[in-house]
């Protein structure tokens, strides 16, 4: 099998789903993994789209079978990414994108160090809170405790940005989508042998600016806004995870 494994992580409400959905319409030969969970569907969620909804017994059987690349128990429910998602995509000659949280990403990197990891940041706590409230209103329930918890967790997740190869700030959706697309294209080009066009070089330059080592100036205001200092990355506790 051959292919590239991409993973993207972001605090809840950062606009990750919007970026990934737009990417899906722009990039060919890129599969999007659908996670498994034991929680009940919410709102208009359908099995096989947002998640594969399974029983706790079935999930624990899959754990025993070592069927997951990563998994975690969050607020009494299991979440996980099946290993067959990667195998199926690579067998079909496609790359795979995983949409998972910080602790899940850590598990994947331990198993597959060659993974291309991307962290998407919201531009500020204020904008993140606005997005969270808007999403809650759209779901018909505004739970202040849930919003408070997700804002607190966002800071903990952002503290771990150094674990990721690329950093994006989703202040303008079109720009974030272009940067995400450029990262995919650049990583593919780095593994190819064909000629490189001017457009390829443009995309490579965009991707290079998004590398963590080149992102410090751009992300500094975000880190300051969330109160994240220059200390070493702090682990995210499982009890705080919220997929």
UniProtKB/TrEMBL annotation:
Superkingdom: Bacteria
Reactions accelerated catalytically: GMP + ATP = GDP + ADP
EC numbers, comma separated: 2.7.4.8
SUPFAM superfamilies: P-loop containing nucleoside triphosphate hydrolases
Binding of ATP, residues: 10-17
Keyword Transferase part of the UniProt annotation: yes
Pfam families attached to this UniProt entry: Guanylate_kin
Protein's UniProt keywords contain Ubl conjugation: no
Keywords: ATP-binding, Cytoplasm, Kinase, Nucleotide-binding, Transferase
Localization annotation: Cytoplasm
Domain Guanylate kinase-like: 3-185
GO cellular component: cytosol
Single GO MF annotation: GMP kinase activity
InterPro entries, per the entry: GK/Ca_channel_bsu, Guanylate_kin-like_dom, Guanylate_kinase, Guanylate_kinase_CS, P-loop_NTPase
UniProt cross-references to Gene3D superfamilies, sorted A to Z: Guanylate Kinase phosphate binding domain, P-loop containing nucleotide triphosphate hydrolases
HAMAP family given in the database record: Guanylate_kinase
Function: Essential for recycling GMP and indirectly, cGMP.
Family stated for the protein in its record: Belongs to the guanylate kinase family.
NCBIfam families cross-referenced by the UniProt entry: guanyl_kin
Name of protein: Guanylate kinase
Species the sequence originates in: Silvibacterium dinghuense
């Amino acid at each position: 099998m051959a292919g590239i494994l991409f993973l993207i992580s972001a605090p809840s409400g950062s606009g990750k789903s919007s970026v990934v959905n737009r990417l899906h319409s722009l990039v060919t030969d890129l599969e999007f993994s659908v996670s498994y969970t034991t929680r009940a569907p919410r709102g208009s969620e359908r099995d096989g789209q947002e998640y594969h909804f399974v029983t706790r017994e079935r999930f624990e059987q899959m754990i025993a079978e070592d069927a997951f690349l990563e998994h975690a128990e969050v607020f009494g429910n299991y979440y996980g990414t099946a290993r067959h998602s990667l195998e199926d995509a690579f067998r079909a000659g496609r790359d795979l994108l995983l949409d998972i949280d910080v602790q899940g990403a850590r598990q994947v990197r331990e198993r597959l160090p060659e993974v291309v990891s991307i962290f998407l940041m919201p531009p500020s706590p204020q904008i993140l809170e606005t997005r969270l409230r808007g999403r809650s209103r759209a779901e018909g329930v505004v739970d202040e405790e849930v919003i408070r918890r997700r804002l607190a967790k966002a800071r903990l997740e952002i503290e771990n940005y150094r674990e990721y190869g690329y950093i994006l700030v989703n202040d303008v959706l079109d720009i974030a989508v272009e940067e995400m697309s450029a990262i995919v294209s650049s990583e593919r080009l780095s593994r190819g042998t064909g000629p490189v066009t001017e457009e390829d070089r443009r995309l490579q330059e965009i991707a290079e600016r998004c590398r963590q080592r080149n992102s410090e100036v751009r992300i500094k205001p975000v880190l300051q806004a969330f109160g994240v200092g220059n200390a070493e990355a702090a682990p995210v506790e499982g009890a705080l995870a919220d997929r």
